[in-house]
Amino acid sequence: MYRVIIAGAGTGAMTLCGQLIRSGKVKPSEIAVIDPSPLHYYQPGFTILAGGLRGNSEKIKSHMDYIARDTRSLFHPDINFIPKSVTGFSPSSNKISIGNEEISYDHLVVALGLSLDYDKVPGLYEALEDENSPVGTIYQFKYCLKTNRLIQSFKGGQAIFSQPNQPFKCAGAPQKIMYLSNSSWTNSGIRAKTDIQFYIPTPAMFSVPIYAKELEKIAKGKGCNLHFQHLLTKVDHKKNEAIFKKGDEEITVKYDFLHTAPPQSPPKVLHGSPISNEAGYVDVNPNTLRHNKYDNIWAIGDCASCPTSKTAAAAIAEAPVLVNNICKVLDKAQPNAKYEGYTSCPIFLGNNKLMLCEFKYQGELDETFGGQTTPSTYAYYLVKDILPKVYFSLLPKGLWYGRNSFFKPKYN
Q: Is 144 a catalytic residue?
C-alpha cells in the first residue's frame, strides 16, 4: 500500500513528485513511481539536436547529459522506483497491475504520456529503420540522430515536411525542424537547389489564429510551399514516395528528404480501461485534473483528457495545481486550484530566432513577455541553453514552477 502511486516517469511525473515531496504532506517512502524506461529524455531537445543547434550526431553522442539522464536519478532516493510496465487498472479496489502483481494506493496519478504509432502510416517504420532511406523524425532519440545526419548531408532536391492529425506532442515541432533545416541549407549554400514543401492536415499553420497568421507569413517568406488539409497516409521508401490524402483525393509526392511526425495516441494499457474515456485518455476534470468518477485518481501530462496542446510546458503548469489539490484532499478539504489550459510552444525559426507561443484553453493568449508574435533572439537562447539546465537540475527537486519560475503559485 502506497499513499501515492505515480504511473509513469516523464516530465509531469518528475515535476509532480518533486513538488509533492516538498509539500511535506507525503513522505518519499510513501510514494511509488512505475516506469520501465532506463533513460529519461528531455524531449523538447530533440528538435534542437536534429536541427544541428548542438552540432553533428557524433558530438551529440559525446554530450548525452544535455538530452538524457538515468531515470531513477531524477527522483528522490527514498521513493520506491519500480522499473516495470503498468499492465492494468482496478480503480474500484484501488489497485494497479504490474504484470501478475497488484499493488494498492490511496491516490493514483497517471502520467503515461503518448505512444508513437508508426504502424498507422504503412512503410514509415521501415523507412526510419533503413539507414539508407532519407526519412527522419524528431520524435525518438535514435531517429533524431538520423535526422541530424540527413539534414547535414543533404545535397538538394525535394524536401518534404509533414505532420499528423492532432493530438500529438508539441504541435509546432514539425515546422520547427523545417525552419532549422531551411537555415542549415541556406548556410551551407544548397538552399537554392532545394524545394521545401510542408504538408499539414489542418486548414492553418497553428491552432491559435494570431500565431497561425504570423507563421504562415514566415514560412512563405522563407520560400516554403504550404499544402493545407493534406494527411500523410503511406511511405514507399523503395521509390522515395510519400502518399497524402486531401479529402477523397490521393496524392503521390517524390522526395529526396522526408521528415514527419508519427501519429500518436494514449498507451494501449489505457484503451478500454475503466479510468479512460472512449479515446483512451484518462477521464479527468480539465481544471482540477481529478478523475470524473474516481475521486482518488488523477492525471497529468499528455495522457490526460484535457483539451490542451500536448507539451512539456503544459505538464509543468499542471503539476502545482495537481499537488495543491491532492494535498487538499489529504487534509479532507475540497480541491481549489484550477488549471486553465496554459501551454507553451517555442517555435525555432532559424537564424537564432524563436517565436514563443503561449496560450490557454480556447486559444486565449497567455504570454509571459507580451508581443510574442515577433521573433525573439532572447527567447531563442532561453529555450536552447537555459531551459534544459533548469529541466534536469530544478524540476526533479520541486524547485521550478514553469512560467512562475521559483515562485510557487498561490490558490484561494
A: no
